[in-house]
């Protein structure tokens, strides 16, 4: 099943929050949906969920229109968390499970499985307000997946979690993908996206500025990173032809270069100057690509 957005536009008054966005999100994939603050990510998620009307364009799921009528097929972890603080975890999840067509017993069985999986079985009968922010996040995650959705939308799923819990949740998300769930995932942490997503898009002021597979995006970016550790000064490389960025390191430097040929030239020039401990040509990071495409012009 594929989620498809065709020329989707959302206007609030005369402000265009999402501008002719077209995307195909393949089945059983984790798709990275990136953008700076105010880029239009949450607005797009709300349109997919049928919580906001589309101004123009079309969203479909496996060829059929999607919206509130398909909410039992969709799981959503919103950026602003929405649990009821005074309710016990058990009652909360039973309530949400029932809204999505589960029986009380099915919801409890599934909840217990997830609480064990996320190593917090003792929270079953705790009120949400008694849990730490990170642990509330786990419960919110469970509420998004309790009904085994076919499409899971995760808005900043790892924010507020410590590194151990980030890893635990990442593993859970990867397992869901392997079991066949299509996942759309937004994050400001580029390393998470690099690790988890095969395809991605970057939105900027509502418009798509990058779209494709992570590998193709990196390849087409052209520029490379070059890390050099040497036992002689390297600062002459700051003004070298083909060097776009220069960053001094304690024992060398990290360069962004225009293309691979520049590294050949630099390598030839370093010969005979002294001992080179490292000369490493790397793909650009997604962070580099994001910064170049979106710049510092966040809202
Ligand atoms: N209900 C609304 N009424 C008017 N403008 C809105 C509304 N919701 C969002 N916007 C505007 O639409 C734009 C996109 O907002 P959106 O929340 O989708 O961004 P985002 O990419 O999710 O940002 P962030 O990463 O900060 O969460 C912003 O300019 C925002 O102010």
Automatic annotation (TrEMBL):
Keywords: ATP-binding, Nucleotide-binding, Transport. GO terms for molecular function: ATP binding; ATP hydrolysis activity. SMART domains: AAA. InterPro entries: AAA+_ATPase, ABC_transporter-like_ATP-bd, ABC_transporter-like_CS, ABC_transporter_ATP-binding, DrrA1/2-like_C, P-loop_NTPase. Residues 3-230 form the ABC transporter domain. Belongs to the ABC transporter superfamily. PANTHER family: ABC TRANSPORTER ATP-BINDING PROTEIN, ABC TRANSPORTER ATP-BINDING PROTEIN NATA. This is ABC transporter ATP-binding protein YhaQ.
